[in-house]
Amino acid sequence: MQTRLVPLTDMAVLMTESWVDQTRRPFITAEGAYVPVREGFPSTHMLPSRRRSGRGYQKLGDVVIFHGAYPTLDEVNDVKTLEKPRGIFWISGHEGVTREPHILRIEGSGGEVTHRESGIIYRLDIEQVMFSQGNREEKTRISKMIHPGETVADMFAGIGYFSLGMARAGARVHAMEINPVSFKYLEQNTTLNGLTGKIRADNGDCRNLLSGVYDRIHMGHFEAVTFLDQALRHVHKETILHVHMLGDRSDEIKNILHDSSLDANITVHKVKKAGPRTWHLVADVVIE
Ligand SMILES: C[S@@+](CC[C@H](N)C(=O)[O-])C[C@H]1O[C@@H](n2cnc3c(N)ncnc32)[C@H](O)[C@@H]1O
């Protein structure tokens, strides 16, 4: 992989540069960050591409997490050689309204990690809150849509997965999160990324916290459709809603818009595979 070695302090600014290959992860070391370079742009260092034994895994800070089937001993040893992690875990799924991880420690230690992605710092306790590994491109897509100064409601903010990127892109974000543990990290991450003036964080049920009218409403929850009628009370003409869903529920969205006497233009985008024959999708709903 061709990279450029840059000081860690430059990361936040760099990640929007055209030469950065957003589809690959920077390799962080004490001497700096090896940032992946897109084809056709000059680089300073070549790094060996990660050898994968065919088994994917998630790296959060200095901890490795396996999803799906429990890993074999070879897969654990492979990851130990490659990543030298502080801890190795297995997540078999996420549960309930707050999507808490079903997590098992394979070896080493877990707890709080500091994870860097696209120039944003995320603090979280990997044993208590989720971190969706496949939303990276969707976060970039949404952040690139932001008009500086626009008002955004992030109804299921978590630890700031989308709120931080939207605020860094210039939005004024009202972030709502029901889980007090995720909310603690949402507040911490807002401060860590220097975004306290841009994010207002509220702990509670988003249906009770939505207030006024927003230019954009982000609904990052697989059951977002069931909250849509409440969100539609806080829109104006041209408000954009991003309604996440498992599989295409556009017909339900159209019915709810009709019941709210609203018209909208709907386009559906793929976010990531969420299982065999199941896609995590997002509907961009632009109020007309
Ligand atoms: C699946 S996570 C998604 C987080 C983030 N939007 C993303 O896409 O990565 C959903 C988050 O919504 C929170 N949540 C669930 N119901 C909620 C509600 N009624 N009001 C506010 N937050 C809620 C959960 O605690 C969890 O942190």
Which terms summarize this structure?
288 residues; binds S-adenosylmethionine; methyltransferase; MeTrfase_TRM5/TYW2
Q: If you had to describe this structure to a student in words, what would you say it looks like?
A:
This is SAM-dependent methyltransferase. InterPro entries: MeTrfase_TRM5/TYW2 (IPR030382), SAM-dependent_MTases_sf (IPR029063), TRM5-TYW2-like_MTfase (IPR056743). One of its GO terms (biological process) is wybutosine biosynthetic process. By secondary structure, this protein is of the alpha/beta class. It folds into two domains: 2-125, no CATH class; 134-287, Rossmann fold. 22% of the residues lie in helices and 35% in strands. It contains eight helices and 17 strands. The chain has helices spanning 11-14, 73-83, 136-145, 163-168, 180-192, 206-209, 228-231, 250-259, and strands at 2-6, 27-29, 32-36, 45-46, 58-60, 63-67, 87-95, 100-108, 112-117, 120-125, 151-154, 172-177, 199-203, 216-219, 240-246, 264-275, 278-287. The strands form four sheets. It has a seven-stranded mixed β-sheet with strand order 13-12-11-14-15-17-16, sandwiched between helices. Strand 9 (112-117) and strand 10 (120-125) form a beta hairpin. The radius of gyration is 20 Å and the shape is globular. 37% of the residues are buried. The structure holds S-adenosylmethionine (SAM). S-adenosylmethionine binds at residues 97-99, 132, 135, 156, 158, 161-162, 176-179, 182, 205-206, 220-221.
